[in-house]
Design a protein that fits this description.
Order of helices and strands: HHHHEHHEEEEEEEEEEEEEEEEEEEEEEH
Shape: globular
CATH architecture of the largest domain: Sandwich
CATH topology of the largest domain: Jelly Rolls
Structural class: alpha+beta
Largest sheet: 11 strands, mixed
Strand content: 25-35%
Length: about 450
């Protein structure tokens, strides 16, 4: 038996070496074919030029080979470390199927790195990659897919000085809604250079009560620097009710924060909400559930203290008395926060499931991680959401303005926050069991198709 095992092992090792040798030859031949005017320029045009263009927020332009070539080593470094495109979300941990995911495929990363190692060749001078269709930086992010917004709600206009303390604006706007509408997508967009100074711009829904006073009904949407927008899944309704007023809460930081900082006065600073709606009556369709977006606190803000040149970690727990589907996860903090995670604990089994991990979080790029509806967590009543965030108040944190300061919880940019924004679809038992059964059926069909 032992000699047979050794013989089999020798055959397996020989076959593995042969396959590896062939794969290496194939990889080498593929690498030699990599040029800017081939696959590389197309990858850059499709993933980088959206920001790195004339008038874009990127600090340099990547619209042509002559613009790209001097930056090739830095591009390779940033791409290989998954710092660019700027979508911080860990590979291989938890749910990976996201809507609006900016991350490059590993094969694209490997091609860019190999191209730079070969000297970043141009390739056939008579050929060129398909050009990126330059987009107006002030265009709505969902316009190509959904057209222009059905409703735009602007804030008042403010002039923001080049330096000074944090500023806040709180105002109420009447958007003229005459019937209940279900939101299909929503984007908050500071106009022009205002993107550098708007730290966040949150909006709430207000309705008049019997006494004629305005009561808060919940969030409309949340914006923080870098956020692309939110898509609401099919089959659910995030409602903007008839007669609703919109309450703005806008936090501005003179001079700007991060790579997009202008360091100068911003005149006529206006923030807009773009709303795309389903057709009227969508909420009355069969099997439509309600979705809301809310702030889920991780720790009481007054309890958060980070020592000079030190670290901190916060942890919070939330559960529901009914089943839900978790549609999106967006951790929030300021300049010292550098990581976040989301888990689900199931008390009946004692099992903890990892859902999302962000190990290189930055306040200059907030993302609402929207789970594909086919994999979005279905959470039974009583299961516990476990939210964690980490803070680095040392010189190793590139966003840290002063590691020698004590940092406490608060609303200023120099303070810290510890919460996450979650979009939740609220289910009943029947709806929950229906979604669970549909997933099992899809999994069975998928497995049958692989036989």
């Amino acid at each position: 038996m032992k000699s047979n095992w050794k013989a089999s092992a020798r055959v397996w090792i020989a076959a593995t070496i042969a396959c590896g040798f062939q794969a290496n030859l194939y990889a080498q031949s593929e690498e030699h074919a990599l040029t800017y005017n081939g696959q590389i320029g197309q990858i850059i045009n499709e993933n980088c030029v959206v920001c790195h263009q004339d008038g874009g927020i990127g600090p340099m332009q990547f619209e042509t080979y002559d613009q790209v070539r001097p930056w090739a080593p830095l591009i390779s470094y940033k791409v290989a470390n998954r710092e660019m495109p700027p979508y911080a979300y860990d590979q291989g941990i938890g749910i990976q199927h996201l809507i609006g995911d900016w991350r490059l495929e590993q094969s694209e990363i490997d091609q860019i790195v190999a191209w730079v190692e070969q000297g970043a060749p141009l390739g056939d001078p008579d050929s060129s990659p398909p050009p990126y269709q330059l987009r107006d930086p002030n265009e709505w992010n969902f316009a190509a897919q959904l057209g222009q917004p059905d409703l735009i709600v602007p804030s008042n206009s403010y002039d923001i000085p080049a330096s000074g303390n944090d500023l806040w604006s709180n105002e109420i706007v009447d958007p003229g809604i005459t019937s209940d509408r279900c939101i299909k997508a929503v984007q908050v967009k500071p106009r022009g250079d205002a993107a550098a100074v708007v730290h966040h711009a949150n909006s709430s829904v207000l309705l008049e009560n019997e006494e004629g006073e305005l009561d808060r009904q919940g969030m409309l949407t949340e914006y923080a620097m870098g956020k692309w927008g939110e898509m609401v899944p099919e089959g659910v309704c995030r409602t903007l009710p008839a007669g609703a007023q919109i309450a703005w809460s806008i936090h501005m930081y003179p001079g700007g924060v991060g790579a997009t900082a202008q360091g100068e006065m911003i005149e006529d600073n206006v923030v807009e909400i773009g709303l795309w709606f389903h057709e009227e009556g969508y909420e009355n369709s069969e099997n439509i559930f309600k979705q809301d977006l809310a702030l889920y606190r991780i720790e009481e803000q007054d309890d958060l203290v980070i020592p000079p040149n030190g670290y901190q970690m916060t942890q919070g727990f939330h559960s529901f008395d009914h089943p839900v589907r978790l549609d999106s996860f967006q951790p929030h903090g300021h300049l010292r926060m550098n990581a976040a995670s989301l888990e689900i604990f199931y008390p009946e089994t004692g099992r903890t499931e990892q859902i999302s991990q962000i190990s290189n979080w930055s306040a200059t790029w907030h993302h609402s991680h929207i789970y594909d509806p086919d994999v979005a967590p279905l959470i039974p009543a009583g299961a516990v959401l476990v939210l964690k965030q980490w803070y680095d108040n040392t010189a190793d944190n590139p966003n840290n303005p002063d590691p020698d300061q004590w940092v406490v919880g608060g609303s200023r940019t120099g303070d810290e926050m510890t919460h996450a924004w979650l979009a939740i679809t609220h289910l009943d038992d029947e709806g929950y069991q229906k979604l669970v059964a549909e997933r099992k059926e899809k999994e069975s069909r998928s497995l049958a198709g692989q036989d």
